[in-house]
Structures are given as structure tokens and as C-alpha cells.
Amino acid sequence: MPITYSEKTIFSKQSKSIADMLLHLDQDNFENTVLLFKVLAHALRNNEVLIEGLDESIFERPELLKEKIYVLLQHALTVATAAATSTVILKDYSPAQLGKFFGVSVVTIHKWIKQNRFVGVEIAGDNKHNRISENTEFITNSGDRMLVSEVAEMWHKQEAEMAALERQESQLEYYTRLIADYEQKYGGEFERTLGAKVHLTPEEQTDAEIWSHLLGRQNIEFGDSKE
Prior knowledge:
Blueprint: H1 5-23, H2 27-43, H3 48-51, H4 62-86, E1 92-93, H5 95-102, H6 106-114, E2 132-133, E3 137-139, E4 145-147, H7 148-168, H8 171-186, H9 202-226
Antiparallel strand pairs: 1-2, 3-4
Helix pairs in contact: 1-4, 5-6, 5-7, 8-9
């Protein structure tokens, strides 16, 4: 049960609120807060710097205790996520790679990031590039959620199936079949549909690029078959 990227982001942002909540409990529950603080402080590894110099007087200084609880929660998150990734190396993907997996343009991927459809992911700042972890949740048009890793897996499976089909038919047949799929989707040949449009949606732009590439490959294969 690994901690997802979105859960890590949410916990990190909510740590101060959690620390504040733990301090504003009645006396009986506050004693539980003290116990929780002590147990975590001594249980977490690489925690010597945090607990060095602390004594019982910290529990009489609410603001200092709140600060130390926040630091402790952040450290606990670091330890938890490090443990989760120590045996499993998570992949991350660029917007271009995600565009390939989802079958959309990079512009659309950036639009989805701004719309928070990649849960917990924010647009990178200047001179930075987004890298989105495979355990990030993606919100579909229907509101369902799925992991980026699941989308990547479906793409790789589809690619493998296409490669298998390609081996069973000639290159010319392969490209002709894929072109026919686009002609059926848009109701005609490229020149009379997407090739004639001035303004394309992100999906149409991606399809136009692929369709045009397939037509070029078909012409090459057709020429080779006549030689």
C-alpha cells in the first residue's frame, strides 16, 4: 500500500494544520498528543537532530511544540516515502511522454495539469520542466481516477499488439489499414478533412501529424513495391 504522489503532496501541505489540530484538544487528548510526539520522535530513524536538546518543558510552550510537531510530521513523511521507494524505483514522465500515452498534444497535457487533473501536480516554474510520477492519479472526463502507470501500461500493450499485427502483414498493408481508420474517424481523405482545416483542436492536431506521417510512409512503401 504505497503512498501516492498526491497523498504525499496533500500530507505535506496539511502538516501545519494537523500540528495545530493536535495542540487544540482537551486536556485528556492533549496528553495523547504528548505521547504521540514522544513515540514518533524516538521511533523514526535519522531523527537525532530533531530531538537533541528537547526536554519536558517543550510541552509547556505551545508554539514551540507546534513547530516541532510540524517538523516531526514532515520527517515522518520523508521516512515513509523513502521506505516506499527503497525497493521499488518509480518512473516519472515528461509532458511529451504523457502526450504519447494519452494520444494528445503536449499543450493538452499542460492544460490538464493546470486543471488539476493530475492530482497534486502543479505547473513547474520558469526554467523548470514537469516530471510526473507513474503513481500520480489522473482524473478522467467521467470523474474516475486511474494511475499514470495504468495509462502507460495500456499504451505499451497496444504498441505490442500493433507490432504483432505489423509482423503479420506487409508494411504497405499496415499503413493503409491505419490510414483507413483515420478516414473513417473523420469521414473522408486527409486533404478534404483535417488537411483542409485552418484551426484544429489539440486532438485533431495530434491526429493530423500522425495521419500525415502515415501517408508519407504509405507512398514510400507503394513506390518500393513497384520496383
